[in-house]
Inverse folding.
């Protein structure tokens, strides 16, 4: 699709400087953009590129004063980055909306149903009683088990697997390779040292506006539900165990793991590769630093780091001293010798 | 499927109190259950729900004394949780057994063969000379490479990939997205700084009753076999490198990793996000705490923690002191000053 | 395929001792090999097996002196392991080359195109404008999004997902379940505590001779490209965030993670489960130990360990002292008491 600068200015409520008929068909960084591309200047560090860029249209701050004439068409807005992001979102939305229909071959059980403007890609599988809401896009090679319900405006990327009985809200995005609803890790030890599987008959609920990255795993509850609440965002390769609950708008970075039955509050931030043990609570707004190992509940608003994790500021101080440990040991040794000598002298 | 209380009582050898014709069709937690659901009361903490639950049938201990009359039908058994788990297992077994036949489109090589009561889902791929045992269920979108042999009563969940020449025993369960038999990470450094691939021509063997979680990776051996022995249980997102051996009934939690050629004994327990270096041995019954980094062999029965990991009890003591490091440093400084002063005074 | 010893000797430029017509059809370890298998003896530790092995042909060093007569046919070469590896590579190459054609059902968009000697497996998906080079093998259930370009001699294993607009060079291997080009983790915090997605419109570029293990995730850039440079090797379950760059011939072990916009130089080695924060640089030839947490840039050639990571040698010393912390604390306490006593005596 090709857009003239005039139309773009309309979308971002901007003012054109230069040729309103300049056209663009894709996006580029200001330092790399080619003719026919749209770019933006937000960071002053990149200012010099404004005068050399080959981009056809640049979104730029109203406040910016040109140092010399430019070749490219400018669109003036109050906040260049924000306007650019709005434009990108609009563009992606349009692209998604255009994608409709059912590609063949796909497998849709007779009892499955779906709404308007839905896309179902080739090799996708919809089990019995599956329900798909309006405008949701199911990419190729996705598996949706029996009785799964998916809301409106969702994007389920290629190869996602959703086990039976799970529920997905509206405006949910799930990236490739992610598994929703696999069995929780529950095995009862037997007298002979072997393990007997504890059946996992619960499900997973993803509420509205949840986004899950690629190759993440969210296990179904033993009984009841593993729940990811509204607006929570999960990165790639994360492990969410059975019966976990993640609160509204909490954010979890890549490769972190949350063990069984742990409840995570609202607005919690968990860093990459952090691990949280089972059966604890993380209070609203608490923060867990990357690679931390959290073994106890955390109060609302508190930050922790380290493995095992404790209060962020105290832990940083201990880490600083731990680097001087060989020196500290030497000082203790010197004290011991000095004192021994002193004792010999004085007694 | 709908079952009357009388039939359930028969399966769990329980005694009915109330209406033997009450029927249930699914399971629920006692605090959330709806009419037509079966639940149980094992934990006294949930006792109050017994009098308010909408569940139609409750499995409950023989010993429990009612505080007031209940609406629901009770089934009395010696151990309520155990009876409930038995029921769930039976139910899942029945559901699995009902799933048979070959869905279309699927790809089954002419030289592939399979036994009785097998299910092969749509978009599943069976390569040349593949053999599938009786009653095994191959879910949609599974890939089974050439010459792979899979035993009886296995469940291979959607999207699992098993590379050529691997072997899977009986009663093995593999969850979605898991990859069995990808190449081990072997590259020989070259004089120019580049790397030359070392061909990986071994395979992976999963013995009977192994269960593997979702999105786990088990690499094929360089030569010979990577082996997961009988009854071992692996969680999600685990990395098992080439030529590793995991002993009988060992248990590995999510996101742990085992490097090349390491041998893990029987009944070993490895915590989440733990890492084990290559070419070492973990003795039978040894334990590795979550997030530990094991760089040396561990004797049978020993427990370790930390990164690098060492004796569990010693490490916990060191961790406790490490939190007081800023204080310890301060105390050393005070000692130094005091001693310096004392030396000035006494000499 | 069956090869006589004479033909194998020709390939590795070796000299036959024994029956040149002995035939082999597969490979085995010297201690496990069966009749009809080819093996090698490189490690003197395995010498005894030479006299008991059932392998039909053994590749062995020119220098090795037999202690007694052997049953098997020997092929003498200067370096037995290297000759064996060459043979394996050749064998795998032949096997790959034989695999050509398009299996049905597959989905190939009308605007997609591919070269000579290409293999496209069943249930593979090629989007609009996809281009596949000569001799590249696309295994079953692979997804290739719109506008993706893949070079020659690549192997894309079953179930790999490559999102739209990504670029893959020549001789690239990607293992099962790996996701290339999923959205970077970018969300702008809103005043109400929720998060607004930052569109991710860049792509991923894998240069020539890159190999990526199974279930690894490489996110597309926000704008521009996430780049894995020539000859870099990535293991399984690795997270590469948006706008990261990995230099030529760098090697990353399993379960490591690299956060957004970090630049990793040439010939860098990153251990398993290590984590690297965003927006830093790792100099050429630097080394990161397993499980380290790197929070600052590293100079070329430097090695680090620990979480947070610092100089390798210093960190090892601190780790050694940290194990003696309870003892050190005790020594400080004794010093305090001794000094207190001394002060009482002398003052």
């Amino acid at each position: 699709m090709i857009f003239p600068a005039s139309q773009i200015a309309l979308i971002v409520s901007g003012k054109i400087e230069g040729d309103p008929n300049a056209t663009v068909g894709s996006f580029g960084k200001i330092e790399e953009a080619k003719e026919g591309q749209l770019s933006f200047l937000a960071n002053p560090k990149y200012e010099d590129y404004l005068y050399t860029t080959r981009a056809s249209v640049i979104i730029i701050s109203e406040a910016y004063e040109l140092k010399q004439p430019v070749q490219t068409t400018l669109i003036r807005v109050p906040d260049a980055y924000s306007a650019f992001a709005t434009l990108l979102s609009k563009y992606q939305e349009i692209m998604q909306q255009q994608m409709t229909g059912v590609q063949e071959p796909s497998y849709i059980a007779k009892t499955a149903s779906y709404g308007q403007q839905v896309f179902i890609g080739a090799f996708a599988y919809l089990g019995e009683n599956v329900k798909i809401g309006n405008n949701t896009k199911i990419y190729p090679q996705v598996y949706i088990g029996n009785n799964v319900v998916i809301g409106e405006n969702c994007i389920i990327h290629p190869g996602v697997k959703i086990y039976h009985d799970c529920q997905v809200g509206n405006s949910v995005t799930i990236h490739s390779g992610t598994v929703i609803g696999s069995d929780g890790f529950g095995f009862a030890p037997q007298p002979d040292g072997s393990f007997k599987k504890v059946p996992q008959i619960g499900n997973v609920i993803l509420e509205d506006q949840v986004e899950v990255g690629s190759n993440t795993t969210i296990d179904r509850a033993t009984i009841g539900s593993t729940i990811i609440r509204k607006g929570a965002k999960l990165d790639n390769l994360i492990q969410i165990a059975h019966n976990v609950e993640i609160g509204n708008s909490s954010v979890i970075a890549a490769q972190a793991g949350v063990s069984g039955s742990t409840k995570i509050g609202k607005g919690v931030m968990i860093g990459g590769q952090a691990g949280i043990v089972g059966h604890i609570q993380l209070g609203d707004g608490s923060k867990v630093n990357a690679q931390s190992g959290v073994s106890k509940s955390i109060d609302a608003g508190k930050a922790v780091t380290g493995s095992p994790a404790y209060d962020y500021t105290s832990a940083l101080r201990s880490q600083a001293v731990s680097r001087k440990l060989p020196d500290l040991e030497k000082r203790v040794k010197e004290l011991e010798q000095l004192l021994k000598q002193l004792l010999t002298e004085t007694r």
